[in-house]
Amino acid sequence: MTAGSRGDVAPYTGLGQALARAGHQVTLVTHARFEPLVAGTELRFHPLPVDPRAELHSSRGRGLHRSATGVGKLMRVAALARAVVGRMTDDLVAAARASDVLLLSSSLGPIGRTIAEGLRLPCLGLYLQPLAPTREFAPPVLGAASWGALGNRFAGHGVNLLMERIFASTVPSVRTRLGLPRGNRAGRALPVLHGFSPLVVPRPRDWPSGLDVTGYWWPYDRDQLLPARIEEFLDAGEPPVFVGLGSATVPDPAALSAEIVRALRRAGLRGVFQRGWGGLAADGADMLTVDEVPHSALFPRMAAVLHHAGAGTTAAGLRAGVPAVPVPIQFDEGFWAERLVTLGVAPRRVPLRALTAQVLAPALDRAVRDPAHRERAQALGLRIRQEDGTAPVLAAVERLAG
Ranges for the Glycosyltransferase family 28 N-terminal domain (predicted)? Predict the structure, then answer.
């Protein structure tokens, strides 16, 4: 069960396929718009009624751009989630009734755990970001800043309380519906496996038992062939820079696209722009605009990747072994962007509000032409590709199902 943007869904398609090939019957429970992601897999699909893209383009969703701080954005997205979560409850319960084990993303953890308790089903958290409080870093959803050991841990508890508040108006009715006492909650902590590499975020030393880091879970990509027009563009010159913001939206996509084009041309680089939910686009013989293309097929052909530093796109760039220029916009993107810089595969982060051609061009030039960034990216990519993030999940599911 997962909710959110494409990046909150795609990794579970490959993980689900691995579970299916091990003999399990797997249903992906998420927004209806993502049903095409399971095409070609052995997964079943149970649609949820909310369209996250429509919500982001609504007046409430566009309000995210009016917040300049991580806390402000988090409060706004929490209000957005509270407004829509009740519309998904019936389908979540129906899908759970047809299941033996519930695997929960962080976005549906509180409600999923309540449903599992009511139906007496074992459950396991499968998270794409580290959410448990730790002294080692501040909550990723608030960005990259550290507030010191005590401040980081305190903020982590605060974020978890806010997550619980998102479901505060829905959980009581679900508990009543499933015959649970309204005020009683399961006391045992939810075991959680985290789908990112320990090479990128080592398991915090102060995490309690039951929280583990497995390695990445990769989206299922059935077609590794690039369209002919992309191959023609790649063959026409030096490797280009990928430009994409995934499911993030921006206030003025045309102006942002034009500024990035100016930066690329100032640096003497070609570009492949992926429209995404933000609507990026570029024109000219040295620029190409594409729609959905598997990152696993495209990224290894790039000179560098300029992206919003969402968890999934960050992982895809690392796996491909290419340098990055992160342009974080909101939530955990600042956290992953800072990780890329710390790992030495990105020269710097360029936050969206600070992006100009004058600032971006030298960052692009360094990412592409400084051999140290490429060498570190290639070495790290090789090690990440050798990890098997699915094996610990398969073992955990076997224990729960047994």
Answer: 1-124
Q: 3-class SS at 361?
A: helix
Looking at residue 283, its amino acid is D
| Residue range 373-389: mean pLDDT, rounded | 97
Domain ranges for the chain, please list them.
6-216+387-401, 228-385
Asked if residue 314 lies in contact with residue 340, where contact means CB atoms within 8 angstroms, the answer is yes
| pLDDT tens digits along 106-126 | 989 889 999 999 999 999 999
> Which tens digit of pLDDT belongs to each residue from 390-399?
999 999 999 9
Distance of CA 150 to the CA centre of its chain: 27
CA distance 255 to 7: 25
Q: For residue range 35-58, list pLDDT tens digits in order.
A: 999 999 999 999 998 877 766 555
228-385 folds as: Rossmann fold (3.40.50)
Query: Using CA atoms, how far apart are residues 29 and 10, in angstroms rounded to an integer?
Result: 12
C-alpha neighbours within 13 Å on the C-beta side of residue 341: 18
What is the CA 123 to chain-centroid distance, rounded? 21
Give the pLDDT confidence of 282-332 residue by residue, as tens digits: 999 999 999 989 999 999 999 999 999 999 999 999 999 999 999 998 888
Which tens digits make up the pLDDT trace of 243-290?
A: 999 888 788 999 999 999 999 999 999 999 999 988 999 999 999 999
pLDDT of residue 73: 53
Tokens of 89: 């409850």
Common-topology check for domains 6-216+387-401 and 228-385: yes
Per-position DSSP letters for 184-234, written without gaps between them: ----SPPPEEE-S-TTTSPPPTTPPTTEEE----PPP-S--PPPHHHHHHH
Q: Considering only CA atoms, which of 31, 34, 60, 62 is closest in space to residue 47?
A: 31
- CB atoms under 10 Å from CB of 43, counted, come to 20
Superfamily of the domain at 6-216+387-401:
Glycogen Phosphorylase B; (3.40.50.2000)
Neighbours of 131 (CB within 10 A): 21
Find out whether 240 and 256 touch, Cβ atoms under 8 Å. no
Contact 302, 319 (CB under 8 A): no
